[in-house]
Amino acid sequence: AYKGSSYEQILKTRRNHLTPNLLAHFKKPLVIHAGHMQWLYDHEGRRYLDMFGGIVTVSVGHCHPKVNQALSEQTAKLWHTTNIYMHPKIHEYAERLVAKFPGNLKSVCFVNSGSEANDLAMLMARLHTGNQDILSLRNCYHGMSPYTMGLTAHSTWRFPLPGVNNGLVHVMNPDPYQGIWGGSNCRDSPVQTNRDCQCAVGCQASDAYYNELEETFKYSLPRGKVAAMFAESIQGVGGTVQFPKGYLKRAAALVRANGGLFVADEVQTGFGRTGEHFWGFEGHDYLPDIVTMAKGIGNGFPLAAVVTTPEIAASLGQALHFNTYGGNPMASAVGIAVLDVIEEEQLQRNSLEVGTYFLTGLAKLQQRFEIIGDVRGKGLMIGVELVGNREKRTPLATPHVLDIWEKCKDLGVLFGRGGLHGNVLRIKPPMCITLADANFAVDVLARAITESLPENN
Ligand code: PMP
């Protein structure tokens, strides 16, 4: 049982002393004081099925015993050296992590958050190419540091500051459901489950978005002088947006032809989450020049990394580059344990199996409820888009979305929310969930919709 401050006291402290920019989830916010695998416990001991994993961060399970053990063994031995002396763990971990990458992606720099990782990738790309301009897709989220805030192209997360957009270009988002050129030919009929958008190269939507990218190069950018393009493999914060097949592969070739590097942001899609592959970019059949990762890499421990080729990494040799905590012994011990658990418990395979089953269950709900406009995703990276009008794909009004979302919480399931209009339920749980958990979540969502919008039955 929880014996700390009262619920009221916690709310009061939050109101009076914590930064007001902390996200306030739910009308009656949750106080979580313990977690175990896919479960979270509130201050009254109520148990919740965690379908969001602290925003896709808890990859192998809350307080996973093996990760806990690795961390506590390391804390008893050594916390910190700032890498001014060598410690064995960072070396062991670097070997393990780069072994997960194809091609010449063999050099790693450890940092502490996704924003830092993307900051560093921007810096490397600019130093390596000698170019300034970086492209990203509208609706993407790459971080909140002053550098990455500009890269993030999602109005919800943008502050009106001069210089934020310096050297950054946001291009049309190849979104087959809400995008301007849609992809209606590939998303209208039968519900797609557990695969990339099946638009082949040559499909109308894929071509339209790619042509727009080509036009941007032609008209707006100094020829042959681009530093990089960034993309998530499936947009996370943007609402689980999957790109038409072939788009990223062709975009990467175009960026390279213009002197730039392609950066895959695997902060949400890495570490087996998409099921079919360990890295999301592998599902798009191309090899990036730089890969950034955070969140699931540490199962909730502050740890992130940039992996690239030795040649690109060498660009940082022009001056000293320093990070106090990057790759510290505790983070490295956790990182190794996370990789061990993913392998030993075959969590990538579990993501594929449970994810496919989950998507199929949600697709059945879509047939039952008009307000479920789209069910999409891959593995345990799932989105359920709620709409007011299915034909026009208009987002469901926010109060209804909030109502359904909160009801799910009251019924014991925590979903995330995202998308430009906040109308996409995001399902990205710890990868240890079971078929029974998927069933429970689908049942809870059905009941929440029925109770919130009885006319939808
Ligand atoms: N990239 C992506 C795809 C993310 O989802 C996030 C966080 N939501 C980040 C980068 C930034 O990570 P952090 O919050 O650790 O800085």
From TrEMBL:
Its cofactor is pyridoxal 5'-phosphate. Its main location: mitochondrion. One of its GO terms (cellular component) is mitochondrion. The keyword Transport does not apply. It catalyses: N(omega),N(omega)-dimethyl-L-arginine + 2-oxobutanoate = 5-(3,3-dimethylguanidino)-2-oxopentanoate + (2S)-2-aminobutanoate; L-ornithine + pyruvate = 5-amino-2-oxopentanoate + L-alanine; N(omega)-methyl-L-arginine + glyoxylate = 5-(3-methylguanidino)-2-oxopentanoate + glycine; 2-oxobutanoate + L-alanine = (2S)-2-aminobutanoate + pyruvate. Keywords: Aminotransferase, Mitochondrion, Pyridoxal phosphate, Transferase, Transit peptide. It comes from the Eukaryota. InterPro entries: Aminotrans_3, Aminotrans_3_PPA_site, PyrdxlP-dep_Trfase, PyrdxlP-dep_Trfase_major, PyrdxlP-dep_Trfase_small. GO terms for molecular function: (R)-3-amino-2-methylpropionate-pyruvate transaminase activity; alanine-glyoxylate transaminase activity; beta-alanine:pyruvate transaminase activity; pyridoxal phosphate binding. PANTHER family: ALANINE--GLYOXYLATE AMINOTRANSFERASE 2, MITOCHONDRIAL, PTHR45688. This is Alanine--glyoxylate aminotransferase 2, mitochondrial. It comes from Drosophila yakuba. The lineage of its organism: Eukaryota, Metazoa, Ecdysozoa, Arthropoda, Hexapoda. The gene is Dyak\GE19492.
